[in-house]
Amino acid sequence: MKGDVLIKNAKLVDGRGVHGTADVLIGEGRILSLSGGEAPTVLDATGMILSPGFFDPHAHLREPGQEVKEDLQSGLTAAARGGYTDIVSMPNTTPVVDNAEIVAALKKKAAQIKQARLHPAAALTQGQEGKVLSEAHQLQAAGAVMLTDDGKTNEDAGVLAQGLLYAASWGLVVSVHAEDAGLRRNGVMNEGSVSFRLGLPGNTGYAESARIARDLEVVRYVRDRLANSVSAQGLLHIQHLSTKRGLELIRQAKQEGLPVTTEVGPHHLTLTDEALNGLNPIYKVAPPLRTQSDVEALIEGLLDGSIDCIGTDHAPHTQDEKELDLLRAPFGIPSLEVCWPLLYTELVEKRGFPLAVLVARFTDGPRRILGFPPLHLEEEAEASLVLWDPHSQRPVEPQTFASKAKFSPWAGWQLKGWPVCTLVEGRRVFALE
Amino acid sequence: MSETATPSFPKHLLDFRDWNRRQVESLLETAQMMQEVLARPVKKVPALTGFTVATVFFEPSTRTRISFELAARRMSADVVSFSGTTSSTVKGETYRDTLRTLDQMGIDAYILRTDAAGVPYQAHSWLHKPVINAGDGWRAHPTQALLDAFTLREKLGSLEGKKIAIVGDILHSRVARSNAELLPMLGATVVACGPAPLLPGSLPGAALTTSLREALYEADAVMVLRLQKERMEKGLLPSLPEYIAAYQVNRERLGWAKPGAPLLHPGPMNRDVELEGTLADSPQSLVERQVANGQAVRMAVLYHVLVGKS
């Protein structure tokens, strides 16, 4: 059998589990064979692991309008280097992604860039103003895969309910930044002993759990409203979960069978508010870094499936912005290029977290939320893949990032698991030099 | 209500709760006779001579009011009109006081239109005179459903086993509710379709779907409802272009229904919003027929409510 690329002797790990080694022949954008063949390009993958390409349901690529922070070229290149083949971009740009023309333009441009593939999320409401619903049907036809007012909170439960009802007509998932604006106030970090000691305005974890509790009631309402309309279901995805209490509410809701999903970011799994002791705005993020007890609970939730997936919430800003003071610096941490090695090292290597589960949370988890079929390493499967190295260790060096945001809270951390090669439909979009 | 050999009729038409299939069919047969009266050169019969009918409209409406008033006059009834927007309600009088005042003037039947669901029931308890509901809020518009049924039967014959799709703002539609009540009584299956924010959580008599294709698929007839622009203002829908893109009944989509499936619209129509404009004027459209039939159906209703035998 002949193909384009042959990946020899790779260990296969996908969302179903850890498999043996195989010689993976790729051609016509698909996996042609797991038992070798001929190809002009042969990669020796001895000691490496091959997985389905990672899928990020939550990244800020800043285009259009905020290209000083990031753009499609830099963001999608960073994604490919991080092992991602697919990225959902958030719509809180300038202008807001709230019409079909912008979605189509982003899709077109991303296709020309030929790095990770772009799946734009569009605004739930026009201008993300929380008032008038956006044109979900036409947005979806243009390529939008999710609706969200992320960057803002959904203060009006009625608008969220109507948005969920309307999105349900099209099978579109609605995602929310679940924080009660009144409770979080102007907090710049987790409210707790650290914020009280440092004299910084705190954002209580209850701002998140209170909003999740409300939103779950909205989902119940929508479920009941739609109980007799056979073709529709209102899907709510809760972004960047950060608290133990929020997790408990979601776990309970899932046991009840509510159509609700959630994600967690790499920073909420590896950092706590103690990081703010150094008074460095690089750690300023929304929702904020919480406590060790929250971190432990979130890892447990990731393991038991209460948390469906990893969402980076990659949120690039300029160096100048992040060097403002803690009250004025913008919220956000870039992480596309470190997310996989970070979590592989911190969870799998150091804590014995099951590798296949982590892979599933980077692949099948987000795919299922967005309505994409699972992607497994088998013949005929789409060859959107990442080959990564579980052995060699090197430090995080933000100055080498493809992202325009060349800073990282994990700078200097020694990590394993770095991607070596990323393929999108059989085409190599990243290969380590 | 039990079915008897010679059906007796409820002395009111608030909705179809007190009506059975036999009574409805008998009424539609009377409407057929009225249709014949309307085809004569002199469109008048003495059936309601000496009766006085009041149209009491607390919500503006021209078409329904004219249809009722003509229906009454063609049967020689005296007609008085009360319009809430121009008369005493603006001075703060309650519906109850207005109606009881009118009742002192020897009215024999009331034709009532209100913006609030249930007022016809309240009026019925206040007046002890026949009340015909000409539309109460989102709840019921029984003469519209009767004229729709009459028009559908004229075109399709028996409605037994027929699939009728109703498309649009179901949640706020008294036309949809009354048709969902009446058409299944005549053997039809009703599928109500619209975007989820405009669908009720349940609707007795109708299956609900957000999928237009599913609703129109193999439908024997398609009823399109008016889209109120205020639904956008209230945040239930994104925009008119979006509604048109997703839910307008156009030529292509009508192709999902049975060939030649008739189109109905209760009016007034937003051309090229809920319905492709040229379809309204096509041979498939029964829109004008509905208006013509409305008068005959309302004559039959007045006759049954006031005189009471078939």
UniProtKB/TrEMBL annotation, chain A:
Its EC number is 3.5.2.3. The keyword Oxidoreductase does not apply. The gene is pyrC. It comes from Meiothermus ruber. NCBIfam families: PRK09357.2-2 (NF006841), pyrC_multi (TIGR00857). One of its GO terms (biological process) is purine nucleobase catabolic process. Substrate binds at residues 60-62, 92, 317, 331-332. Keywords: Hydrolase, Metal-binding, Pyrimidine biosynthesis, Zinc. The keyword Endoplasmic reticulum does not apply. GO terms for cellular component: cytoplasm. Zn(2+) 1 binds at residues 58, 60, 150, 313. SUPFAM superfamilies: Composite domain of metallo-dependent hydrolases, Metallo-dependent hydrolases. This is Dihydroorotase. Belongs to the metallo-dependent hydrolases superfamily. DHOase family. Class I DHOase subfamily. InterPro entries: DHOase, DHOase/Allantoinase_Hydrolase, DHOase_cat, Dihydroorotase_CS, Metal-dep_hydrolase_composite, Metal_Hydrolase. Residues 48-216 form the Dihydroorotase catalytic domain. One of its GO terms (molecular function) is dihydroorotase activity.
TrEMBL record, chain B:
GO terms for cellular component: cytosol. Residues 160-304 form the Aspartate/ornithine carbamoyltransferase Asp/Orn-binding domain. GO terms for biological process: 'de novo' pyrimidine nucleobase biosynthetic process; 'de novo' UMP biosynthetic process; amino acid metabolic process. It holds the Pfam family OTCace. It catalyses: carbamoyl phosphate + L-aspartate = N-carbamoyl-L-aspartate + phosphate + H(+). InterPro entries: Asp/Orn_carbamoyltranf_P-bd, Asp/Orn_carbamoylTrfase, Asp/Orn_carbamoylTrfase_sf, Asp_carbamoyltransf, Asp_carbamoyltransf_Asp/Orn-bd. It is an enzyme of class 2 (transferase). L-aspartate binds at residues 91, 174, 226. Keywords: Pyrimidine biosynthesis, Transferase. It comes from the Bacteria. Pathway: Pyrimidine metabolism; UMP biosynthesis via de novo pathway; (S)-dihydroorotate from bicarbonate: step 2/3. One of its GO terms (molecular function) is amino acid binding. Carbamoyl phosphate binds at residues 63-64, 113, 141, 144, 267-268. Catalyzes the condensation of carbamoyl phosphate and aspartate to form carbamoyl aspartate and inorganic phosphate, the committed step in the de novo pyrimidine nucleotide biosynthesis pathway. This is Aspartate carbamoyltransferase. It comes from Meiothermus ruber. The gene is pyrB.
